[in-house]
Specification:
This protein has 335 residues and is of the alpha/beta class. It contains 10 helices and 9 strands.
């Protein structure tokens, strides 16, 4: 009997911040491997989720969102995203279709991606898109130009189709297809799971022949210390997303297996100012207690054993310039 032909390769999922990349990776893998919050630019390093379809293993690189960088950490995140796209066997460009439509409808006449953005006065009388929508469209145009410059094609995945009419989706897909970087178009809802099975089959067929890189039961290749820190950072942003900007990081400082089968985890939450520390602590320490409880519960499920989690909040004005932190997350300090 002939042995089945194994396939294995890397898939880079790129897009503007908050396009739904982490949610899509979690759906493709079938479990949570990347944090998901309402904050944009949540993913700071490429999380490799591992998805299976028939005889194919797909190593999914959930890259940080690609946007115009303003500081060192931003530059490192964007460089990491482009690096993931450059090295991958297949690239998926995930786009928030709802944002694309909102911007398109706010302009006088329809506009193809890459055309100059009209000013607000030219768009008067039409539905207004939010500033975030305009930023997302600008980031998409920048990504398209980057793909062109690198000679890369991408599978276009229009996300959030559950919020839109089919004729609008087709119009957006047609505009983007004209850019010349699109080789296939998929309509999906990462949150609802619509179209995800079709995407897995398409990606599986694009993987090169070769042995699997990971065991069948492994869902991610990020070190557990980093995954633990990311889970706590997710809970942090979920609780204080209105008050706290991106001036926070979580580092796992201790991960010790106990004789009774449990694990002791110590983590430090770094913020830039005393006022931010007060926000994270909350009145009487209640906010930090909530963050710790929610993180502990999820870590217990992830590790399938009791977790003793201890959190400390420290003020470090220049934590984002710490070379060790960049190394921990696989980012290039000198980007």
């Amino acid at each position: 009997m002939t042995e089945p032909t194994l396939r294995c390769g890397f898939v880079a999922i790129i897009g503007a911040p908050n396009a739904g990349k982490s949610t899509l990776v979690n759906q493709l893998v079938g479990t949570k491997v990347s944090i998901v919050t309402q904050k944009v630019q949540t993913t700071r390093f490429p999380v490799r989720g591992i998805a299976l379809e028939d005889e194919a293993q797909m190593v999914l690189v959930d890259t940080p969102g690609i946007f115009k960088p303003r500081r060192r950490l931003d530059r490192a995140m964007v460089a990491s995203a482009w690096g993931g796209a450059h090295d991958a066997d297949c690239v998926v460009l995930l786009i928030d279709a709802a944002a694309q439509l909102a911007v398109s409808q706010s302009l006088t006449g329809r506009r193809a991606p890459g055309d100059p953005m009209p000013s607000g006065s030219e768009a008067s009388g039409q539905p207004r898109a939010t500033g975030a929508d305009h930023k997302a469209v600008e980031d998409v145009e920048m990504i398209i130009e980057g793909l062109k410059a690198n000679g890369r094609k991408a599978i276009l995945a229009l996300n959030k189709i559950d919020l839109m009419k089919s004729e609008n989706l087709l119009a957006i897909a047609d505009d983007l297809y004209k850019t010349g970087i699109v080789e296939d178009v998929l309509m999906i809802s990462a949150e609802k799971g619509h179209g995800v099975k079709d995407m897995k089959k398409l990606l599986a067929g694009r993987m090169p022949e070769g042995p699997w890189l990971y065991p069948e039961d492994q869902a991610a290749d990020a070190p557990v210390r980093i995954l633990a820190a990311e889970i706590t950072r997710e809970k942090l942003f979920l609780r204080v997303h209105e008050e706290l900007p991106y001036a926070a990081a979580v580092v796992t400082t201790e991960f010790t297996d106990k004789p009774d089968g449990s694990v002791r985890i110590e983590q430090t939450i770094y913020v830039e100012r005393d006022g931010q520390r007060a926000i994270v602590l909350g009145k009487g320490g209640q906010t930090l207690k909530w963050i710790g409880q929610k993180s502990r519960e999820e870590l217990g499920k992830l590790l399938d054993r009791p977790v003793h989690l201890f959190l400390t909040v420290k003020v470090e004005e220049k934590w984002s310039d710490d070379r060790a932190l960049y190394a921990q997350f696989g980012l290039d300090y000198n980007s």
